[in-house]
Amino acid sequence: MLSGCGNPVKERRSPETGFIGLDHPVQESWKVRIALTENGVRRGVIEAGHGAEYRKNKSSEHHLDQGVRVDLFDINGHTTTTISAGKAVVHDNQDIEAEGNVIITSEGSTVIKTEYVKRTAKDKMIRSERFVTITRPGETIRGEGFETDQALRRYRIFRGSGESFIKQ
């Protein structure tokens, strides 16, 4: 049997928050709005109904869902391209992966539909290896995989087929 003297008031300690868990977000938000910047200049805006930030080692990812919309801007700050998707992941380097009923539109009336795309911030290109349909006035192109510049002006489709209407 042990006995001893001690303070009957228990020591209060703050909860440990240094480790939350690998599968748990460090923070969650609703009605999320994230600005994409380059050298302090806004290059885009991402909006979603819900977002969760996950940290792994020294990097973080923002997982977005509930209606994701990405507006990408030209050098003058005008929206050139809009990406909508069911969910997306925004990486520290501002690369964006969008998935689930992805629709990409441009001011030039090009519409791209697929199930997954990745937009890389470094070269401002949008790519996918999945089935894709690209529609422009008078033409529809389908294929497995594509890449395009951010403004959808130049694109390359892989393993493609399509239809084009020629005026006579």
Automatic annotation (TrEMBL):
InterPro entries: LipoPS_assembly_LptC-rel (IPR010664), LptC (IPR026265). One of its GO terms (cellular component) is plasma membrane. GO terms for molecular function: lipopolysaccharide transmembrane transporter activity. Gene3D superfamilies: Lipopolysaccharide (LPS) transport protein A like domain. Residues 1-20 are annotated as: Disordered. Pfam families: LptC (PF06835). This is LPS export ABC transporter periplasmic protein LptC.
